[in-house]
Task: inverse folding
């Protein structure tokens, strides 16, 4: 049963969650990816293995973490390993099926910028930087990108390429010997873009109910290609919405909880 | 290992201009030690940390640092580190020279430093502009056996690494439990290791494979309960996510930031007073 009353953020998160098959190993970023991955685990993919870069493997949080290393992630994990091992033994060794990334800017070949807006030496906006994104983009079997679509974020030319998608397209990525296949889908608040099999240019392949092609094109900073078979994505079903909303409510509650520390009497 | 009050440990082991790594990935961030560095007005530090977090936002905003080596500089799940941004974008309160890595590269640099290597090796990751702006801090080469492209990152050797941990025993051995990040590598890479701990116990409550830093590797230790707040110490107190959310407003403007630091850090004697003033401890 599909629901009619949902927000664009909710259908975006639900659509992202549906990309993840049960049993897959997924390297999770904080924010929207974390919400999508845990929603998948709590609905259709109970055996999804979630790895956070802080070193938690197979974690099953009951509330969404604010940071990549909240205690909840460690307490509910199968194993907590040192950070160098996450990147070497799990990611570089090829044990991660899906990497989930966001960014401030994306170009038509799904290359990503999370470093600066403006010139590197004198940036207009200094963004947080690479984190684990360049290695996730290279070594994860496939990459899913989740980003809100605006002309300022979907740009003809990145100010800085932090992480690679398909580079200049048309096989340029494969020619570098990159082990991962690259971005499989970009999930936005309008619908889903997928790379063209030959040119690797991002192409609009699906829209949410009630969203027009024109609106998606207007939210893109380059002339957006439209797929020959444009799909309308199903609305979130009531179970997905119930789980997502409950997860977000318990997260808000947990984040509002004050922390109290008891100091020894002598201090 | 010398057990010292934190004030003396920082005075003795953190010098102006030093390469200093306060490590702890989201967990066990040594905030109390960072605040003592602010109180002692250290200058021109080269700060090293994977995720600068609020503690380096504070040190940078208070004018303690002229260089930063890092891999991800945001307030996790919240947004920008406004003081870090102001230093990079406008040179306030002083310019900040950046050496920027990915997480895997910086962790590798610590590992190389910890192992006495000159550099660390990993598989080359596909083309990024980071290779162009930080060309001095990475090189590509071919594997001598297979020809596969590799990336080399120079060893990172802090003058002093500072960690927070849960326990120290009577002999001065230190136990870290929970998310460990690259703390062990940063500790082993440093010339000196300063540790703050939640508590001293007669005997560590440690499994055989637990992360225990033997006392002879620890230069100085201080007992500072709550020393990781607003980050956390597993089994002692949780991460104060409410404060991480509130920091966004506190640090957004120079004036409000400086006033907050003057009142809550410079205006108090030590970390216990800091926690009491903020209502975190009774």
Result:
């Amino acid at each position: 049963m599909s629901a009619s009353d949902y927000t664009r953020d909710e259908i975006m998160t639900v659509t992202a969650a549906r990309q993840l098959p049960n049993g897959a190993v997924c390297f999770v970023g904080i924010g929207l990816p974390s919400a999508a991955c845990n929603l998948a685990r709590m609905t259709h993919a109970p055996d999804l293995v979630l790895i956070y870069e802080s070193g938690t493997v197979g974690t099953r949080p009951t509330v969404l973490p604010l940071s990549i290393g909240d205690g909840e992630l460690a307490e509910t994990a199968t194993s907590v390993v040192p950070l160098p091992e996450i990147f070497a033994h799990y990611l570089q060794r090829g044990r991660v099926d899906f990497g989930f990334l966001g960014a401030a800017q994306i170009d038509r070949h799904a290359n990503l910028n999370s470093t600066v807006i403006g010139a590197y030496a004198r940036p207009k906006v200094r963004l947080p930087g690479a984190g684990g994104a360049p290695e996730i983009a290279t070594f994860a079997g496939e990459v899913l990108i989740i980003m809100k679509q605006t002309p300022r974020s979907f740009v003809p030319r990145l100010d800085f390429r932090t992480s690679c998608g398909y580079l200049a397209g048309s096989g340029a990525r494969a020619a570098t010997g990159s082990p991962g296949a690259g971005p499989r889908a970009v999930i936005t608040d309008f619908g889903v873009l997928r790379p063209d099999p030959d040119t690797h240019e991002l192409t609009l392949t699906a829209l949410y109910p009630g969203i027009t092609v024109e609106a998606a094109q207007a939210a893109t900073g380059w002339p957006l290609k439209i797929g020959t078979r444009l799909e309308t994505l199903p609305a979130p079903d009531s179970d997905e919405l119930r789980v997502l909303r409950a997860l977000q409510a318990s997260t808000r509650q947990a984040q509002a909880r004050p922390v109290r520390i008891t100091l020894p009497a002598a201090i | 290992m010398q057990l010292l009050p934190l004030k003396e440990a920082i005075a003795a082991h953190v010098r102006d201009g030093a390469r200093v790594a306060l490590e702890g990935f989201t967990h066990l961030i040594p905030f109390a030690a960072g605040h003592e560095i602010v109180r002692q007005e250290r200058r021109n530090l080269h700060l090293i940390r994977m995720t600068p977090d609020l503690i380096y936002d504070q040190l940078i905003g208070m004018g303690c640092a002229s260089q930063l080596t890092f891999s991800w500089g945001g307030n996790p799940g919240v947004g920008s580190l406004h003081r870090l941004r102001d230093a990079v974008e406008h040179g306030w309160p002083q310019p900040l020279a950046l050496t920027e890595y990915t997480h895997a590269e910086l962790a590798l640099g610590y590992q190389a430093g910890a192992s006495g290597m000159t550099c660390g090796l990993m598989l080359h990751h596909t083309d990024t502009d980071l290779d162009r702006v930080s060309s001095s801090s990475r090189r590509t080469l071919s594997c001598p056996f297979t020809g596969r492209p590799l990336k080399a990152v120079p060893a990172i050797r802090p003058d002093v690494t500072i960690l927070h941990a849960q326990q120290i025993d009577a002999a001065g051995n230190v136990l870290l439990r929970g998310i460990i990040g690259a703390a062990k590598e940063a500790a082993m890479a440093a010339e000196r290791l300063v540790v703050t701990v939640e508590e001293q116990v007669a005997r560590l409550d440690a499994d055989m494979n637990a992360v225990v830093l033997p006392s002879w590797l620890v230069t100085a230790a201080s007992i500072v309960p709550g020393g990781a707040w607003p980050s956390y110490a597993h089994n002692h107190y949780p991460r104060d996510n409410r404060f991480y959310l509130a920091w966004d407003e506190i640090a957004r403007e120079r004036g409000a930031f400086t006033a907050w630091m003057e009142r809550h850090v410079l205006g108090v004697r030590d970390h216990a007073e800091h926690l009491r003033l903020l209502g975190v401890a009774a």
Summary: The longest helix of chain B spans residues 103-115. Chain B has ten helices and 15 strands.
